[in-house]
Each structure stands twice: as structure tokens, then as C-alpha cells.
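Protein data:
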Amino acid sequence: MKKSNIEKKESHFFWNGRAGFGQAAGSRDLIAKELEIEAISKYIFDGMRVLDAGCGNGITAIEIAKKYNVNIVGFDFSEEMIKAAKALSSSTKLKGTIDYHVIDIT
């Protein structure tokens, strides 16, 4: 079902507002986030190129790039989430690289 322009604007406003919540920006369930990263990591190895669609503030991409020498492209439609992702990535020592973009895939 296609979202109306009003629904898109409300969603955009919501996610921009959550960008500053750090680890809890995407979800307050930090255990689920940890399990998600652990599950995804089983399929990642050095040298891979990884796409993180809907990367939010980059927490998953950052955790993967800390463990593996990978090239990650992350995108999200929230400008504030991408700003937060760039800030978090720049203050973290990474084995891999992450390139963030603001993109709305709808």
C-alpha cells in the first residue's frame, strides 16, 4: 500500500526526531539490536561490500565495520539519522569503511 504525502512527512518527522537517541534511535530494545548484529555478522567476512538499506544512525554498520574490513554503503531517508551516523562513525575506530547517503527508496 502506497503511503500518502502526509504519512511520509509524519514518518520523516518521527525518524528525524529519533536521530539523537544514540543506541536507542531505531529501537529501545537493545538486546534485539545486539542479536540482530550477531546474526548478520555470521554472514560477513573481510573484503565484502555490504549494503545497509535503512541504516538509521548507523549502529549496525558501525558494529560490522568495527569487526570486519568491509566496505559498507548505508542509506536512510532521514537526514538527521545520516548526520548522526556520520558523527558516530567518525568517533569510532573501524577496520572497514562506511559511506552514508540520504536516499528515499520509495
Notes: DSSP finds four helices and three strands in the chain. The chain has a mean pLDDT of 88. Residues 5-18 form the longest helix (14 residues).
